[in-house]
Amino acid sequence: MERKIMSLGKSSMVISLPKDWVQINGLKKGDSVSFNIQRDRSLVIYPGALKKSEPKEITLSVGSNEEELLISQKILGAFLNGYSDIILTSEKIFSVSQTKAIRRMAGRLYMRVMEADAKCVYIQNLMDESKASLEQAIQRMHLISRSMIEGAISSLKSNDIELAKSVMSLDDDVDHFGFFILRILRNAAQDSALATELHVDPLDCMDHQILVYRMEYAGDYASDIARHIIMLNGAKQKIPDEVLSIMISTGKEVLELYIKGIEAFFSKDVAAAVDIMKYRQTMDKAEMEIATKSFTGPPKSSDLVCGICSIRDDIKRICHCAFSMAEITVNRAFKASNAESSDLCELNEQK
Predict the structure, then answer these.
(1) DSSP-derived 3-state class of residue 46
(2) Which domain range does residue 241 map to?
(3) Domain shared by 110 and 175, yes or no
(4) Left, alpha or beta for 94 (phi > 0: left; psi -120 to 50: alpha)?
(5) Is residue 190 part of a domain?
(6) pTM to 2 decimals?
(7) Cβ(232)–Cβ(239) under 8 Å?
Protein backbone atom coordinates (compact mmCIF):
# COMPACT_ATOMS: atom_id res chain seq x y z
CA MET A 1 0.00 0.00 0.00
CA GLU A 2 1.42 3.37 -0.98
CA ARG A 3 0.43 6.98 -0.37
CA LYS A 4 1.69 10.10 -2.09
CA ILE A 5 3.05 12.93 0.03
CA MET A 6 1.06 16.15 -0.42
CA SER A 7 1.94 19.70 0.49
CA LEU A 8 -0.12 21.56 3.10
CA GLY A 9 0.87 25.19 3.35
CA LYS A 10 4.49 26.28 3.10
CA SER A 11 6.15 23.89 5.54
CA SER A 12 3.86 20.91 6.21
CA MET A 13 3.74 17.62 4.32
CA VAL A 14 0.78 15.24 4.75
CA ILE A 15 -0.39 11.79 3.68
CA SER A 16 -3.91 10.33 3.88
CA LEU A 17 -4.72 7.43 6.20
CA PRO A 18 -6.16 4.22 4.68
CA LYS A 19 -9.96 4.21 5.03
CA ASP A 20 -10.08 0.55 6.18
CA TRP A 21 -7.53 1.27 8.94
CA VAL A 22 -9.54 4.30 10.11
CA GLN A 23 -12.77 2.27 10.24
CA ILE A 24 -11.19 -0.71 12.02
CA ASN A 25 -9.90 1.58 14.76
CA GLY A 26 -13.14 3.59 14.99
CA LEU A 27 -11.50 6.92 14.19
CA LYS A 28 -13.25 10.03 12.92
CA LYS A 29 -12.44 13.59 11.94
CA GLY A 30 -10.84 15.47 14.86
CA ASP A 31 -9.50 12.35 16.59
CA SER A 32 -5.80 12.14 17.45
CA VAL A 33 -3.26 9.55 16.46
CA SER A 34 0.21 8.92 17.85
CA PHE A 35 3.37 8.01 16.02
CA ASN A 36 6.78 6.62 16.82
CA ILE A 37 9.94 7.00 14.73
CA GLN A 38 11.83 3.72 14.54
CA ARG A 39 15.58 3.20 14.42
CA ASP A 40 15.31 2.12 10.77
CA ARG A 41 13.65 5.53 10.04
CA SER A 42 10.20 3.99 9.51
CA LEU A 43 7.13 5.56 11.11
CA VAL A 44 4.64 3.60 13.22
CA ILE A 45 1.19 5.17 13.66
CA TYR A 46 -1.05 4.25 16.60
CA PRO A 47 -4.78 5.03 16.91
CA GLY A 48 -5.37 7.48 19.75
CA ALA A 49 -2.85 8.32 22.46
CA LEU A 50 0.18 6.07 22.69
CA LYS A 51 -0.60 3.83 25.63
CA LYS A 52 1.85 1.93 27.75
CA SER A 53 1.38 -1.80 27.26
CA GLU A 54 -0.63 -3.46 30.00
CA PRO A 55 1.06 -6.08 32.21
CA LYS A 56 0.60 -9.58 30.80
CA GLU A 57 -0.88 -12.28 33.04
CA ILE A 58 -0.68 -16.06 32.77
CA THR A 59 -2.01 -18.93 34.88
CA LEU A 60 0.16 -22.03 35.20
CA SER A 61 -1.34 -25.31 36.36
CA VAL A 62 0.90 -27.43 38.60
CA GLY A 63 0.32 -31.16 38.98
CA SER A 64 0.29 -32.71 42.45
CA ASN A 65 3.41 -34.75 41.65
CA GLU A 66 5.07 -32.25 39.34
CA GLU A 67 8.83 -31.98 39.84
CA GLU A 68 10.39 -28.80 41.18
CA LEU A 69 12.62 -28.43 38.10
CA LEU A 70 9.64 -28.34 35.74
CA ILE A 71 7.84 -25.82 37.94
CA SER A 72 10.91 -23.57 37.97
CA GLN A 73 11.26 -23.80 34.17
CA LYS A 74 7.58 -22.93 33.70
CA ILE A 75 8.01 -19.78 35.78
CA LEU A 76 11.23 -18.86 33.97
CA GLY A 77 9.64 -19.39 30.56
CA ALA A 78 6.69 -17.17 31.45
CA PHE A 79 9.02 -14.50 32.85
CA LEU A 80 11.27 -14.45 29.76
CA ASN A 81 8.21 -14.18 27.50
CA GLY A 82 7.15 -10.93 29.14
CA TYR A 83 4.54 -12.04 31.68
CA SER A 84 4.54 -9.74 34.70
CA ASP A 85 1.76 -11.48 36.64
CA ILE A 86 2.15 -15.25 37.08
CA ILE A 87 -0.50 -17.29 38.90
CA LEU A 88 0.32 -20.88 39.83
CA THR A 89 -2.54 -23.17 40.78
CA SER A 90 -2.38 -26.72 42.17
CA GLU A 91 -4.76 -29.59 41.48
CA LYS A 92 -4.82 -30.33 45.21
CA ILE A 93 -2.35 -28.45 47.42
CA PHE A 94 1.30 -27.49 46.88
CA SER A 95 3.80 -29.74 48.59
CA VAL A 96 6.45 -28.14 50.78
CA SER A 97 9.13 -28.76 48.13
CA GLN A 98 6.93 -27.25 45.39
CA THR A 99 6.27 -24.14 47.48
CA LYS A 100 9.98 -23.74 48.14
CA ALA A 101 10.74 -24.13 44.42
CA ILE A 102 8.20 -21.42 43.51
CA ARG A 103 9.55 -18.98 46.09
CA ARG A 104 13.16 -19.75 45.20
CA MET A 105 12.53 -19.12 41.49
CA ALA A 106 10.58 -15.94 42.24
CA GLY A 107 13.53 -14.69 44.27
CA ARG A 108 15.99 -15.48 41.47
CA LEU A 109 13.87 -13.43 39.07
CA TYR A 110 13.37 -10.54 41.51
CA MET A 111 9.63 -11.21 41.53
CA ARG A 112 7.50 -10.75 44.61
CA VAL A 113 4.92 -13.15 46.06
CA MET A 114 1.78 -11.02 46.29
CA GLU A 115 -0.74 -13.64 47.43
CA ALA A 116 -0.44 -17.27 48.47
CA ASP A 117 -2.49 -20.09 49.93
CA ALA A 118 -2.35 -23.88 49.85
CA LYS A 119 -3.64 -24.10 46.24
CA CYS A 120 -2.59 -20.84 44.60
CA VAL A 121 0.47 -18.56 44.49
CA TYR A 122 0.45 -15.18 42.74
CA ILE A 123 3.84 -13.67 41.91
CA GLN A 124 4.45 -10.34 40.21
CA ASN A 125 7.30 -8.55 38.49
CA LEU A 126 7.52 -4.95 39.70
CA MET A 127 10.32 -3.74 37.43
CA ASP A 128 9.70 -1.32 34.54
CA GLU A 129 11.79 -2.51 31.59
CA SER A 130 11.32 0.79 29.71
CA LYS A 131 13.33 2.57 32.41
CA ALA A 132 16.17 0.06 32.36
CA SER A 133 19.55 0.78 30.82
CA LEU A 134 20.43 -2.23 28.71
CA GLU A 135 24.13 -1.41 28.45
CA GLN A 136 24.40 -0.65 32.17
CA ALA A 137 22.74 -3.96 33.08
CA ILE A 138 25.13 -5.85 30.78
CA GLN A 139 28.14 -4.00 32.21
CA ARG A 140 27.09 -4.92 35.75
CA MET A 141 26.66 -8.55 34.74
CA HIS A 142 30.10 -8.40 33.16
CA LEU A 143 31.69 -7.03 36.35
CA ILE A 144 30.35 -9.97 38.34
CA SER A 145 31.37 -12.62 35.80
CA ARG A 146 34.78 -10.95 35.47
CA SER A 147 35.27 -10.99 39.25
CA MET A 148 34.34 -14.69 39.26
CA ILE A 149 37.04 -15.51 36.71
CA GLU A 150 39.60 -13.39 38.59
CA GLY A 151 38.64 -15.10 41.86
CA ALA A 152 38.81 -18.57 40.31
CA ILE A 153 42.33 -17.98 38.94
CA SER A 154 43.50 -16.41 42.23
CA SER A 155 42.10 -19.27 44.32
CA LEU A 156 43.76 -21.73 41.93
CA LYS A 157 47.11 -20.02 42.48
CA SER A 158 46.88 -19.74 46.27
CA ASN A 159 44.57 -22.71 46.95
CA ASP A 160 42.29 -20.27 48.78
CA ILE A 161 39.20 -22.33 49.59
CA GLU A 162 37.22 -19.42 51.05
CA LEU A 163 37.79 -17.41 47.89
CA ALA A 164 36.68 -20.40 45.81
CA LYS A 165 33.45 -20.61 47.86
CA SER A 166 32.91 -16.88 47.33
CA VAL A 167 33.26 -17.36 43.56
CA MET A 168 30.60 -20.07 43.59
CA SER A 169 28.24 -17.86 45.60
CA LEU A 170 28.29 -15.23 42.84
CA ASP A 171 26.89 -17.60 40.21
CA ASP A 172 23.29 -16.79 41.16
CA ASP A 173 23.96 -13.05 40.79
CA VAL A 174 25.13 -13.57 37.21
CA ASP A 175 21.98 -15.60 36.51
CA HIS A 176 19.78 -12.84 38.01
CA PHE A 177 21.16 -10.27 35.59
CA GLY A 178 21.04 -12.75 32.72
CA PHE A 179 17.32 -13.50 33.20
CA PHE A 180 16.47 -9.82 33.54
CA ILE A 181 18.40 -8.79 30.41
CA LEU A 182 17.00 -11.66 28.33
CA ARG A 183 13.46 -10.64 29.33
CA ILE A 184 14.15 -7.07 28.21
CA LEU A 185 15.60 -8.23 24.89
CA ARG A 186 12.72 -10.60 24.15
CA ASN A 187 10.18 -7.87 24.93
CA ALA A 188 12.07 -5.31 22.83
CA ALA A 189 12.16 -7.71 19.87
CA GLN A 190 8.32 -7.78 19.95
CA ASP A 191 7.60 -4.21 21.05
CA SER A 192 8.94 -1.56 18.67
CA ALA A 193 8.16 1.27 21.10
CA LEU A 194 10.20 -0.41 23.87
CA ALA A 195 13.02 -1.13 21.40
CA THR A 196 13.13 2.55 20.49
CA GLU A 197 13.26 3.59 24.15
CA LEU A 198 16.14 1.15 24.75
CA HIS A 199 17.93 2.25 21.55
CA VAL A 200 18.08 -1.28 20.11
CA ASP A 201 16.85 -2.88 16.91
CA PRO A 202 16.08 -6.58 16.19
CA LEU A 203 19.68 -7.35 15.19
CA ASP A 204 20.93 -5.70 18.38
CA CYS A 205 18.59 -7.94 20.38
CA MET A 206 20.08 -11.06 18.78
CA ASP A 207 23.68 -9.91 19.28
CA HIS A 208 23.09 -8.87 22.89
CA GLN A 209 21.34 -12.15 23.63
CA ILE A 210 24.36 -14.13 22.43
CA LEU A 211 26.63 -11.88 24.49
CA VAL A 212 24.54 -12.43 27.64
CA TYR A 213 24.62 -16.20 27.16
CA ARG A 214 28.42 -16.13 26.78
CA MET A 215 28.80 -14.09 29.96
CA GLU A 216 26.53 -16.49 31.82
CA TYR A 217 28.52 -19.48 30.54
CA ALA A 218 31.80 -17.81 31.56
CA GLY A 219 30.43 -17.39 35.09
CA ASP A 220 29.38 -21.05 35.14
CA TYR A 221 32.87 -22.16 34.04
CA ALA A 222 34.55 -19.98 36.69
CA SER A 223 32.22 -21.47 39.31
CA ASP A 224 33.14 -24.96 38.10
CA ILE A 225 36.86 -24.17 38.45
CA ALA A 226 36.20 -23.09 42.04
CA ARG A 227 34.18 -26.24 42.71
CA HIS A 228 37.04 -28.48 41.55
CA ILE A 229 39.54 -26.53 43.65
CA ILE A 230 37.39 -27.25 46.70
CA MET A 231 37.02 -30.91 45.72
CA LEU A 232 40.78 -31.39 45.25
CA ASN A 233 41.43 -29.74 48.59
CA GLY A 234 38.92 -32.05 50.27
CA ALA A 235 40.61 -35.07 48.66
CA LYS A 236 44.02 -33.71 49.80
CA GLN A 237 45.26 -33.62 46.21
CA LYS A 238 47.72 -30.98 44.98
CA ILE A 239 48.16 -29.96 41.36
CA PRO A 240 51.87 -30.35 40.37
CA ASP A 241 53.70 -27.02 40.19
CA GLU A 242 54.67 -27.38 36.50
CA VAL A 243 51.00 -27.95 35.57
CA LEU A 244 49.71 -25.27 37.93
CA SER A 245 52.02 -22.58 36.52
CA ILE A 246 50.74 -23.18 32.97
CA MET A 247 47.13 -23.12 34.17
CA ILE A 248 47.63 -19.83 36.02
CA SER A 249 49.45 -18.06 33.18
CA THR A 250 46.87 -19.29 30.65
CA GLY A 251 44.03 -18.32 32.96
CA LYS A 252 45.37 -14.76 33.30
CA GLU A 253 45.69 -14.41 29.52
CA VAL A 254 42.15 -15.75 29.04
CA LEU A 255 40.84 -13.24 31.61
CA GLU A 256 42.43 -10.40 29.63
CA LEU A 257 40.85 -11.72 26.42
CA TYR A 258 37.46 -11.92 28.12
CA ILE A 259 37.68 -8.29 29.27
CA LYS A 260 38.83 -7.16 25.81
CA GLY A 261 35.94 -9.11 24.28
CA ILE A 262 33.35 -7.03 26.19
CA GLU A 263 35.16 -3.79 25.43
CA ALA A 264 35.41 -4.63 21.73
CA PHE A 265 31.71 -5.53 21.59
CA PHE A 266 30.55 -2.12 22.79
CA SER A 267 33.18 -0.12 20.90
CA LYS A 268 32.77 -2.25 17.72
CA ASP A 269 36.57 -2.49 17.56
CA VAL A 270 37.19 -4.96 14.73
CA ALA A 271 40.98 -4.86 15.10
CA ALA A 272 40.75 -5.80 18.79
CA ALA A 273 38.27 -8.57 17.94
CA VAL A 274 40.64 -10.04 15.36
CA ASP A 275 43.51 -9.95 17.89
CA ILE A 276 41.35 -11.96 20.29
CA MET A 277 40.60 -14.60 17.66
CA LYS A 278 44.32 -14.96 16.88
CA TYR A 279 44.77 -16.48 20.37
CA ARG A 280 43.21 -19.80 19.27
CA GLN A 281 46.54 -21.45 18.44
CA THR A 282 48.09 -20.27 21.71
CA MET A 283 45.14 -21.73 23.64
CA ASP A 284 45.42 -25.05 21.80
CA LYS A 285 49.15 -25.20 22.57
CA ALA A 286 48.61 -24.47 26.28
CA GLU A 287 45.85 -27.08 26.46
CA MET A 288 48.13 -29.71 24.93
CA GLU A 289 50.97 -28.80 27.29
CA ILE A 290 48.74 -29.14 30.35
CA ALA A 291 47.50 -32.53 29.12
CA THR A 292 51.03 -33.77 28.42
CA LYS A 293 52.39 -32.78 31.82
CA SER A 294 49.31 -34.20 33.57
CA PHE A 295 49.95 -37.71 32.27
CA THR A 296 53.73 -37.76 32.63
CA GLY A 297 55.89 -38.05 35.74
CA PRO A 298 54.86 -39.84 38.93
CA PRO A 299 51.50 -41.68 38.90
CA LYS A 300 48.55 -39.45 39.85
CA SER A 301 45.24 -40.34 41.45
CA SER A 302 42.08 -40.41 39.35
CA ASP A 303 40.69 -37.51 41.43
CA LEU A 304 43.70 -35.36 40.60
CA VAL A 305 43.70 -36.19 36.87
CA CYS A 306 39.95 -35.54 36.58
CA GLY A 307 40.30 -32.26 38.50
CA ILE A 308 43.16 -31.05 36.28
CA CYS A 309 41.30 -31.98 33.08
CA SER A 310 38.10 -30.26 34.25
CA ILE A 311 39.88 -27.04 35.22
CA ARG A 312 41.81 -27.06 31.94
CA ASP A 313 38.55 -27.48 29.98
CA ASP A 314 36.83 -24.68 31.92
CA ILE A 315 39.68 -22.25 31.16
CA LYS A 316 39.43 -23.21 27.48
CA ARG A 317 35.65 -22.70 27.49
CA ILE A 318 36.01 -19.21 28.99
CA CYS A 319 38.47 -18.49 26.19
CA HIS A 320 35.90 -19.67 23.64
CA CYS A 321 33.38 -17.25 25.17
CA ALA A 322 35.84 -14.44 24.39
CA PHE A 323 36.22 -15.78 20.83
CA SER A 324 32.44 -15.75 20.41
CA MET A 325 32.25 -12.14 21.65
CA ALA A 326 34.92 -11.20 19.11
CA GLU A 327 32.96 -12.84 16.28
CA ILE A 328 29.79 -10.95 17.26
CA THR A 329 31.79 -7.72 17.32
CA VAL A 330 32.93 -8.21 13.73
CA ASN A 331 29.37 -9.02 12.62
CA ARG A 332 27.99 -5.93 14.37
CA ALA A 333 30.59 -3.66 12.79
CA PHE A 334 29.44 -4.48 9.28
CA LYS A 335 25.69 -4.35 9.66
CA ALA A 336 23.68 -1.46 8.19
CA SER A 337 24.61 1.82 9.80
CA ASN A 338 22.23 3.30 12.36
CA ALA A 339 24.02 6.62 12.57
CA GLU A 340 20.71 8.44 12.33
CA SER A 341 19.20 6.61 15.32
CA SER A 342 20.29 9.16 17.92
CA ASP A 343 18.64 11.94 15.92
CA LEU A 344 15.47 9.87 15.64
CA CYS A 345 15.42 9.35 19.41
CA GLU A 346 15.62 13.10 19.89
CA LEU A 347 12.68 13.54 17.53
CA ASN A 348 10.64 11.02 19.50
CA GLU A 349 11.39 12.88 22.73
CA GLN A 350 10.23 16.15 21.18
CA LYS A 351 6.83 14.75 20.09
Answers:
(1) strand
(2) 131-333
(3) no
(4) beta
(5) yes
(6) 0.77
(7) yes
